[in-house]
Design brief:
Elements lengths: L1 H6 L1 H19 L3 H22 L32 H31 L4 H9 L30
Helix pairs in contact: 2-3, 3-4
């Protein structure tokens, strides 16, 4: 039993990272901590899939080394080649992970601008309160947001 645990230490590390990420997403009340937990969870999944495609020994990429005239003269031993499909799929997963992170941070920024906090409990409390009606003497809301000027692009004559 101990040989099995020691022999698969990388899988135990990924399980630990998955549990840390899942705990952060479920138990933490701060939205930034939830985003970090989501990123840890996604990274652990990517590491797991990449580690499952690793082969030990003298493996190479699946590029046939024989000339173009020798098609079908000998069988290809698939044990000598690494499967590129998990790596390609994980590149796509990394792109999705970065896009998800960007959207989550953008939503967190909008939530902070609207509610003034990133704590889940305070956001839920302020959402359950009825909206305050504006009176004639009320000032315009201060959002503390000034748009940045657009950079000048080269070649446009600016």
């Amino acid at each position: 039993m101990i040989d099995f645990v020691v022999g698969h230490y990388n899988y135990w590390m990924y399980i630990g990272l998955l549990m840390i990420g899942f705990y952060a997403m479920m138990a933490k009340k701060n939205l930034v901590k939830k985003i970090i937990g989501m990123n840890i969870f996604q990274s652990a999944i990517i590491l797991f899939y990449i580690s499952t495609s690793v082969k030990k020994g003298g493996v190479t990429v699946p590029i046939l080394e024989h000339g173009s005239g020798d098609h079908g003269t000998h069988a290809v031993d698939v044990l000598n080649y690494a499967n590129p499909l998990p790596h390609v799929l994980m590149l796509t997963a990394i792109v999705v992970m970065v896009a998800t992170l960007g959207v989550a941070v953008a939503v967190a920024i909008l939530i902070y601008r609207r509610y003034g906090t990133l704590e889940e409990d305070e956001i839920v409390l302020s959402m359950n309160q009825p909206p305050r009606r504006k009176r004639a003497g009320d000032e315009k809301e201060n959002t503390d947001f000034t748009p940045l000027p657009l950079p000048l692009s080269p070649g446009r004559g600016n």
